[in-house]
Amino acid sequence: MTLSKVDLNLTAVKRLIPVRDEDAYKNLFGHVLIIAGNHAMGGAAQLATMATVNSGAGLTTIATDSANLPAIHTVLPEAMIIDWTDVFAVKKMIEKVDILLVGPGFGMDNLDLWKLIKTTIASSKRSLKIILDADALNLLAADLAEDEDKKIQELLSPDNQHEIILTPHQGEWRRLTAGKVRADDQEGIQNWVDQAGTILVLKGSSTEIYVPNEPVSYRNPGGNPGMATGGMGDTLAGMIAGLAGQLNKTADAVKLAVFLHSYIGDQQYEYHYVVLPSQISKQIPYAMKEISKKEI
């Protein structure tokens, strides 16, 4: 299969922004569970959750370290919170939600919780949209390294009932592929994605999106040096999670999130030397309304 590349643009993205019916209610727009934020990285959990809420998720729940609960209650009253040491509550929530985001600030030593997540989603009867980011990608890479014959779907979705989205930066990509697929080898990346059965968001100066068994990859031309700030990836992951419950096609939600993330960042960069992830989150509803009204 010959792979072609398409640049994301404003005209195409405008068509992806969902129109809400007059009688819309929260249960139509997805329930997201975010499992993120150990005691040292509560900010990652906050940034991911803020992005999810501002992207329009109908309901957002965060499972996090107890040290983060007071801060998140204060900053994000829209989100529901559970202590991630409450194994029963975490398991029950995974079985209840539509979208699951795991990884921002998760930590590499949280192995019992990681095992619980994998076991629960592998046995879940619901069809989940699962976004793996940051430490979840590194833990997944370690699982794959233990058994090189294992595939991601075998680990997380043995019946192929779940949609999985991976959001690695260059270093995480090297670990996921054990250095066997270069980040500039488009055909090799597409083959890997086809075998893995996952949507891939390969982050970089020009982020690229690969969808299983599609002859097209998508390049995002936006972005700027001011966005080279800790927490940008957490925000993007939260945006994907927030939009995944609002669009029929998960790949469209990914494309919209990736484009919006840099579109807002580029607007901020016109006036700010450094673009903060929290600034991007606050602008998401405004940008979506602005684009939806644009005459193109």
TrEMBL record:
Keywords: ATP-binding, Lyase, NAD, NADP, Nucleotide-binding. Residues 9-291 form the YjeF C-terminal domain. (6S)-NADPHX binds at A44, G105, H169, D234. Its EC number is 4.2.1.136. AMP binds at K203, G204, S205, S206, T207, G233. InterPro entries: Carbohydrate_kinase_pred_CS, CARKD, Ribokinase-like. Its cofactor is Mg(2+). It comes from the Bacteria. Catalyzes the dehydration of the S-form of NAD(P)HX at the expense of ADP, which is converted to AMP. Together with NAD(P)HX epimerase, which catalyzes the epimerization of the S- and R-forms, the enzyme allows the repair of both epimers of NAD(P)HX, a damaged form of NAD(P)H that is a result of enzymatic or heat-dependent hydration. PANTHER family: ATP-DEPENDENT (S)-NAD(P)H-HYDRATE DEHYDRATASE, ATP-DEPENDENT (S)-NAD(P)H-HYDRATE DEHYDRATASE FAMILY MEMBER. Homotetramer. This is ADP-dependent (S)-NAD(P)H-hydrate dehydratase. It comes from Aerococcus urinaeequi. The gene is nnrD.
